[in-house]
């Protein structure tokens, strides 16, 4: 099928962003990125992607804002409670046998998944020997994750999710309400390193025992998914764990045979012992 | 009207969806030559059995769409709960957990807009019963791309808000009863 003008311009825009800012969205799923960029185009008052490209190349203030459109930042604390219950019941007992644990939250966005795991690790008595790496390509999202402030109207859902995940305490133990937001306990991020890292272009930076990367791979095309999953396999220690989103799996991946389905229903994979 | 052969069918339904979809899909044969994609509004927190239910009732095979799955003829892909489902130009599906649209995830608009982009005039869009306005914008996008637009006759629908909203953005869409829609889909697939 031949590309229409919009698509030609869209590809040129992504190419321009890569050349100028080294953010590489060229291997993302086009249908949803196009939708998000159409919103951005409207927001910036541009009739075409070429006009948006002109703006992003010549006005340095545009790229940071465009990045919020290019990266999806929708999550909740303990989103899909069954996943966190799976980590709690099946993965935590393994990790308890390790003297030290490293956890990588890849594509951490605003930090919801990170705080969920930090709370879970505290409840399971794993916190003191754990180091978390929270990475994202979007500096604004990383700053939000570091701040750990969420809108009060989201807390009811967070609290319910936490309970359904098998929470052993009250979520309100972990935050204080202030200035119209809920500020999460800063001791939860005492053992967190926030860092800029791209699954598209960066490499292994540590050997970790658990990677949680939920609803990030769906925005990648097949080739890029393969790259990221290979990176995960290379980063995990023997018998380390990989947790994905509820509708993500390794079935179509080139690296599928480097993992076993540890908890199929919860999308938790374990790296094979010998590799 | 376009002469380009039809390549895919997209269907959106909400309140009363199970019965309406059953009536539209059961007359279609197992060897139906086109892929069908459906968005039904479902509660986000429940594991959906909609695809299984429809699969039991239909001769077509019905399944939840998976990320990066290539579309095949004679299969109905239902969007999974809590994810948007989009079509890529290479004929594969993508899922997304972006914000709900009109309080809905999956959203009919999101599927329809991406499918309009992927299939252009080769697409049929169908809006069935429902109690909100999701799908109206998507159907208009299908028409703009040269595709064919069908709306369930509002006074026959279990909930008429969605068909009425679709007719407002797409006033030249053809209105039909559920059995007529099934007949239309057969013809669209080149079946007698």
Automatic annotation (TrEMBL), chain B:
**So where's the catalytic machinery, residue-wise?**
14, 41, 134
Question: Which Enzyme Commission number(s) are listed?
Answer: 3.1.1.61
Ranges for the CheB-type methylesterase domain? 5-185
Which transformation does this protein catalyse, written as a reaction? [protein]-L-glutamate 5-O-methyl ester + H2O = L-glutamyl-[protein] + methanol + H(+)
The UniProt entry's GO CC annotations, sorted and at most eight, read: cytoplasm
Its keywords, alphabetically, are: Chemotaxis, Hydrolase
- Superkingdom, taxonomy of origin: Bacteria
The protein in question is named protein-glutamate methylesterase
Give the organism, scientific name: Lacipirellula parvula
């Amino acid at each position: 099928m031949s590309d229409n003008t919009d698509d030609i311009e869209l590809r040129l825009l992504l190419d321009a962003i890569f050349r100028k800012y080294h953010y590489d969205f060229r291997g993302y799923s086009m249908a949803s990125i196009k939708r998000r960029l159409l919103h951005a185009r409207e927001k910036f008052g541009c009739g075409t992607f070429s006009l948006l490209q002109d703006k992003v190349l010549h006005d340095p203030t545009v790229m940071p804002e465009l990045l919020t459109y290019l990266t999806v930042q929708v999550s909740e604390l303990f989103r899909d409670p069954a996943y966190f219950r799976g980590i709690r019941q099946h993965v935590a007992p393994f990790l308890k046998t390790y003297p030290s644990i490293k956890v990588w939250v890849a594509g951490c966005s605003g930090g919801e998944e990170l705080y969920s795991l930090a709370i879970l690790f505290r409840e399971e008595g794993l916190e003191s020997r754990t180091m978390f790496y929270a990475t994202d390509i979007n500096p604004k999202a990383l700053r939000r994750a570091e701040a750990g402030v969420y809108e009060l109207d989201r807390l009811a859902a967070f609290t319910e999710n936490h309970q359904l995940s098998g929470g052993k305490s009250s979520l309100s133990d972990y935050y204080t309400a202030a200035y119209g937001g809920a500020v999460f306990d800063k001791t939860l991020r005492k053992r967190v390193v926030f860092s800029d890292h791209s699954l598209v272009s960066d490499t292994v930076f540590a050997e970790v025992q658990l990677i949680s990367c939920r609803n990030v791979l769906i925005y990648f095309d097949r080739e890029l998914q393969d790259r990221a999953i290979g990176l995960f396999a290379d980063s995990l220690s023997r018998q380390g764990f990989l947790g994905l989103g509820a509708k993500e799996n390794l079935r179509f991946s080139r690296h599928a045979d480097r993992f076993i389905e540890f908890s199929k229903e919860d999308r938790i994979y374990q790296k094979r012992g010998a590799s | 009207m376009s002469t380009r052969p039809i390549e895919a069918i997209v269907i959106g339904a909400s309140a009363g969806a199970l019965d309406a979809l059953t009536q539209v899909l059961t007359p279609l044969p197992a060897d139906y030559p086109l892929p069908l994609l459906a968005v039904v509004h479902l509660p986000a927190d429940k594991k959906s059995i909609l695809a299984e239910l429809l699969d039991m009732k239909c001769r077509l095979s019905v399944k939840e769409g998976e990320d990066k799955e290539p579309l095949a003829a004679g299969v109905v892909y239902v969007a999974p709960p809590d994810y948007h489902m989009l079509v890529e130009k290479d004929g594969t599906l993508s899922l997304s957990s972006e914000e709900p649209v009109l309080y809905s995830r999956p959203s009919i608009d999101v599927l329809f807009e991406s499918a309009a982009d992927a299939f252009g005039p080769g697409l049929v869009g169908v809006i069935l019963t429902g109690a909100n306005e999701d799908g109206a914008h998507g159907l208009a996008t299908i028409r703009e791309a040269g595709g064919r637009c069908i709306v369930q006759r509002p006074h026959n629908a279990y909930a008429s808000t969605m068909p009425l909203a679709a007719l407002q953005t797409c006033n030249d869409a053809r209105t039909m009863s559920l059995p007529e829609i099934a007949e239309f889909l057969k013809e669209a697939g080149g079946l007698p």
